[in-house]
Amino acid sequence: MGIAPLLPGPLGFGTAPLGNMFRAIPDAEATATVEAAWDHGIRYFDTAPFYGAGLAEIRLGEVLAAHPRDSYVLSTKVGRVVLDDIENPTTRDLGEKGGLFEHGRPNRMVNDYTADATLRSIEDSLDRLKTDRLDIVWVHDIAQDFYGDQWLAQYETARTGAFRTLEKLRDEGVIKAWGLGVNRVEPLELTLDLDEPTPDAFLLAGRYTLLDHSRALQRLLPAAAEQNVDVVVGGPYSSGILAGGRHFEYQEAPAEIIDKVERIKTLAERHGVGIKAAALQFSLAHRATAAVIPGATRPSRIAQDVAALEERIPDGFWSVLREEQLIAPDAPVPSAH
């Protein structure tokens, strides 16, 4: 198990913004952003049918189709099937994430974690991505933030449907790895306790960042490392608030989060540290994490991400963050040496 040997490096590209998350992005801008990621050496791309009802997959596929398939690693997700039927994107029930992709395609999406839907979702994704195979497949969003009190029922459907289907596809060599892609730690902790099926990795969005990491540190990340289940950190900028944006948890950031970010920024400036560098390098410092996949919708942001990963951060910066109780006392941090 584990996907670290499969990944081309610690920095990937998350395509949720390309599904018109928060705003309608021109096709040319989306294309230029993916091309910028490629030109800066990024070779791991993550997407999902959920991102704009297939829009992100379509946009990503247009660019990647120009490159040899063996030259990059590709992951997408199952759990939602995109239909030809049309609906109003602004009225979709997305749990705590209402309105997230209201600028995406109007195709109706249905939540379905059964075996048949998993296979259909993969076939549809292959068509949208213009490729013949996927490297990693994540089971998407089986957690409280989308399903509330019904999440365990959805999880059980996924366990007997999507999980076993993906495990079979991996064992047959159709895909190289599988896991869960969620915004909460509870389904991942539950999965680590299963005797079977056995995932290779998890994609955890927003739960191992500078702003929110204490819960993941308690049990999830140590257990994942012990079982050799690698963690890819999605949303390392906490929906954008750590990269100059206004959103946290996919909504307008509350006052206490804005205040915390300002405190971190002040300390970062005092130590000559870029807050993007702090965010990315913090998420990567734990032994369980294999990669970070920030998203972007502007080509210039890609160069910033690459530079942030290479920036040298003095040890004193992390010491001050601990002293100010801005990071957990037991959180691993990168060393400047």
Q: What would a concise description of this structure say?
A:
The protein is α/β, with parallel strands linked by helices and 337 residues long.
List the total number of helices: 11
Gyration radius from CA atoms, angstroms: 19 Å
Principal-axes geometry comes out as globular
How far apart lie the N and C ends? 30 Å
Q: Find the structural class using helix and strand composition.
A: alpha/beta
Mean pLDDT: 94
In what order do the strands lie side by side in the largest sheet? 1-2-3-6-7-8-9-12
Approximately how much beta-strand content do the residues carry? 15-25%
Largest sheet: 8 strands, parallel
Low-confidence stretches: none
Q: Helix proportion of residues, in percent?
A: 25-40%
